[in-house]
Amino acid sequence: MSTAVVLLSGGLDSYTAAAILQRDGFDVCALTVLYGQRHVREIESARGVAHALGVRQRLEVRVDLAAIGGSALTTDSPVPKDRTMDAAVIPSTYVPARNTVFLSLALAWAEVLDARDIAIGANALDYSGYPDCRPDYLAAFERLAALATRAGVEGGRFRIHAPLLHMGKAEIIRTGLSLGLDYGLTHSCYDPDAAGRPCGRCDSCVLRAKGFAEAGVADPLRP
What we know:
Layout: E1 3-7, H1 12-23, E2 27-34, H2 41-53, E3 57-62, H3 98-113, E4 117-119, H4 135-148, H5 150-153, E5 159-161, H6 169-178, H7 203-215
Helix pairs in contact: 1-6, 6-7
C-alpha cells in the first residue's frame, strides 16, 4: 500500500480529500499546520477528523505565519462578511504563500517517509479566489518537488493530488457522505465566536451553506 501525506486542516474539504485517498488505496499520514491562525478551533477538528479516519500517523507542525501577518486570518483585521463571492479582488483572508508553505512541509515529511504522494483539499470552483488553489499552481509545485528534493533528483516522482479541484461544494459533500463521513466533526468558519460557533457570514460559512443546500442535506453544525 502506498503512503500519502495529506494536509488536514479540520475543514470539510481536507477531510473529504483524505477519505478519497483512503478509498483509492493509500495509507494516509495527516499533517496539520498550526500557523498562527485566529480560528484555532479548526485544530481541534483536525484531531477529531484524523481519529475518525484512523490515519496511520498524524503530525502537527507549528509555523508562525502570524509573525509575518498580511491576512485577516492571522491578525486582528476584521474578517470580511457578506462578500460578493464573484468579486475579482483576492480577499483579505488570503494568507500570503500559505499553500506553498504547507505543501513544502508535506513534501519534506513525504521524503522522510519515503512517500511520493501528497494530497491537498484545494478547490478551484467553490472557493474564495485564492491564487494558490489553482490547477496551474499545483502543477508548478509538482515540478518544483522533482527539482528540489534528493528523491526527485534520484528519479523519484512526487504527485500532488487535489481530488476536489474541479468539484463544486455540493458534489464534495455528496462524495463525503457516500464515504460515511461525519461533517459534524469539521470546522469551516473564519470568524467563530468564543464558543466556536460559526458566524454564518464569512466566505467559508457562505460556501459551506450553499454546498449543503445544493446537496439537499442538513449541515450538522447548523441548528
